[in-house]
Amino acid sequence: MRNRYLLKKLAIVMAAFILSASLPVCADAAEIKIAVNGTTVSFTQSDGIPFEEGGRTFVPLRAAAEAYGAQVSYNGDVPEAVLVKDGVTVRVPIGESFIYRNGEKIKNDAPARVINDRTYLPIRIVMEALGANVGWDGATSTVTVEDEDKMFIYGIENRPKMSGNLWAAWEEATGLQAAGNYSGAVSAYTELGSRFLDEGPVNAAILFQHLGECYSMLGEYHHASLCFAHSSEYWAQDPEQEQTALHFANLADTMETGLNLYFKTNDPAYNRTKYFGAPLEPESGLLLGAYAESDTGASNPHGELYFDGFPKLTGKEHGVYLLYMPYGSDISGYASHFREAAEKNCIIEIGLQPVSGLDKVKADNYLINMAKYMEESDCQFLLRFANEMNEVSTYWYTEDYDKYIQTFRTVANVFREYAPSVGIVWAPNFFPQNNIDSYYPGDEYVDYVGLSVYEEFSGEGDVLGEGKDRDHWINILDGVYERYGDRKPIIIAEGGCNYHSIIDGADVTDFSAAQMVEYYTYLPIKYPNLKMVVLYDNDEAGPTPGTYYRRFMLSKNPVLLEAYKQGINSSDRYITRWDETTDQYYYELFQNATLPAKYVELCSFITSPAGEYSGVLYFVNGQKAAEAYGIPYTVGIDLTPYAGQSVEIRVMTYGSGPALVDKTFKINVE
Hints:
The chain is an alpha/beta fold. It folds into four domains: about 5-145, Copper Amine Oxidase, Chain A, domain 1, CATH 3.30.457.10; about 155-255, Serine Threonine Protein Phosphatase 5, Tetratricopeptide repeat (Alpha Horseshoe); about 285-575, TIM Barrel (Alpha-Beta Barrel), CATH 3.20.20; about 585-670, Immunoglobulins (Immunoglobulin-like), CATH 2.60.40.10. Helix 5 (about 165-180) packs antiparallel against helix 6 (about 180-190) and helix 9 (about 220-235) runs antiparallel to helix 10 (about 240-255). The protein is globular and about 80 Å long. It starts with a helix and ends with a strand. The relative contact order is 0.09. Residues about 1-30 have low confidence and may be disordered.
């Protein structure tokens, strides 16, 4: 039975950490300090004062955790403490000898407990679960909690101030960079760090831009990414440099090297997929869809949606089709589309676009009759109203966020009353990223959060000077998914990868085909609560006859068509009707994860600016266990011999040069 006294205390106390027994204990524990990323944390009586008991040092939680950038809350129903930082959630059940990191169970030899009206938690295991390095400085009786990335930036910005002429030193640094002496330039720029902070945010932004460029050329991509990200933060301090800030934020993402490890299982205990109960929401699986209205290779003589032609072209049925509809047009004019969709048990995603502006949208007979028509139809509908509202080129764009929100709510309320079977989709454009959340109408008015997700080749900004586009189309979804994926089912309302460069008109099919395969291969792996993905299969005309601005049409590009076929057949989680189900799931392995003692199937998602590698090696406790070629680098590993043990799984890419990506995961085998 739950301890009522404990629950009462959880509601009012300030939690604290208990240091792991592996840390030395100071004789006078009252003098113990905590330094987070080089800054000493101050404690008050209300926070709790560090003290020593039974060979362990106890340190207050909230001040330390928040100084590290974590959010702290308490769940009295369990009871447990909850810490969240950078997409990582650590739950610490009170009185238990384990914690959870993003749902993965981690053993803990110092259970959380309540003492004198405060809850005490183990600092080392919790902070390491959040990504910190925890240490002990005996000379100063200081517990050190460090984020390596923040300490890297801290070391640049807190250098002793150089003497002499600042701008002469700057000229020397830029000269070294121009001459290709990138190591020397890094040293010179770093020496300028604290002085440049005094020159204002723009100069600081430029300093970190140059550091990012130099680290990129040195192949130190993680440091390059950190510098570009910090440059973005400084640019963002100037309201007129918003786009510049976004550019460097995107560049930081492009230069980052990363590796996520997943294992495949049909064990429901590991299922991260949520079912939200939205109209027409698949209970499991990822529904395929397309906009194919103008693809002549899939057309029929009547100019209708191509429910037969598009599946023949791609070799696979699709369960949702997009139809654009100007606000004010007669919905009955699309009756033939709806009849065909009903016969095929397909969903029609109506992109209802207020081309005459938001002021024309009212809760009047037009909107009510449309809702009634859709509710009484045999067809199944999603309604995507005023999509891509955050992008300035749309006719209904406004910076009056409240006006947009109120208009969206008007439409949602009409459909809630007259067409409750229709799923309401809120779907911004992927760019610009910084204003998306300002347009969100609220959970009550939204069934699905969608996104338009497009990729364009852009090699002219390659920081490595090779003219390559190092983006990953699939990563565009990350921000919206992280913010809304635990609240609403997510869909890609439309998206495509242009195989025609908008810069110089060059054919970039190889780039687009590689992006297409990666995109569709990893969507069902990375995003368990992604429920639909709609391909934009159309060409957009250019300014003069016979020219094209963007080209996506599969029937006109056999290479891209084959890439699409490969991608949509890469996973058994892809479904062709919304009421189908699948029981196959992918789960990310985090540091200190727990796996069953049996044969497991692993795969990896790897990003690196270096980009090209031949294969991936998997090691268990230093011994080579498997090797894979081609995404998603799937291998099978037998963990049966390691039952009850903690092991290390190392994943390493290789190519013509040294290892490009090398990461080790610590796991427990049950």
